[in-house]
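SAMPLE LOG
Freezer: B-3
Tube label: C17
Construct: single chain, 313 aa
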Amino acid sequence: MIRFLAGRLALALPTLLLVSAMVFGLQKLLPGDPAVALAGEDRNPEVIAYLRHKYQFDRPVPVQYAAWLGAFLRGDFGVSVRTRLPIRDMVKESLPITLELASLSMLVALGLGIPAGVLAALRRGTAGDHAIGMLGLAGLSIPSFWLGIMLILLFSVKLGWLPSGGYVSPLADPLGNLRAMLMPALVLGTASLAIIMRHTRSAMLNVLNEDYVRTARAKGLKESVVIGRHALRNALIPVVTLGTLQFGQLLSGAVLTEQVFGIPGFGKMIVDGVFSRDYAVVQAVVMCASIFFLTMSLLADLAYALLSPKIRQ
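STRUCTURE (predicted):
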């Protein structure tokens, strides 16, 4: 297991270094001069020159990259040129909000996707199986921003049951927080729900044809015991690893959902950084999301190794 973990870490570190180089390099290709944008409408040449020197825009790109990476590794994400606040403090405020949204979305995906996948496998070839498959295909095909707008029109504008956007801290108002996060969690978790449902159905179909399942049925065990204790337990091995990866994708893919519902999380933070050419904010958010996704990928590999003896060998 230690060798397995060391091998995964050996792959993760170069990947993270490559991501950091791409993040820093690609933002240099964006049109416009951030110093000019920060100088305001007057665009005083002296002010522009001062800003370029202050934020090291006048230094060679490799030198800027080395300085930025070294500071990031020390936990110094820099200062936002738009808000003049330390980016580390901004991350501390936004990250818990996105983590909460991703966690609630994952609960929606697992809580609905696994039962739907099991039901589809047990009713293979029936109308129920086809209906669940069509719903899964719709969940993968519908754009998240369109689904979010439709839910706002229905539950906020027409019915008035839920707020149309905003964020309420769970410490201040737990019920208000749940009402505010319910629609965003449903929107963000829809695609993951469909993926988990399809994989659960496929895994269950494979497991139901195994010899140990037929043996359990031949022994006279109840069908609920055969499905729950023997079939589902083994079918969930790939679903557990898939769910771990999906959770990482939810964290990094909440941009549109947070924009539609006005949630001040990582998504809104990176969009504001792009429009204001606040490169330091964009770099910090993308790097934090990449680190989280690589961590979840590593945990998925470990979970699969713990659940499957073949992988450990």
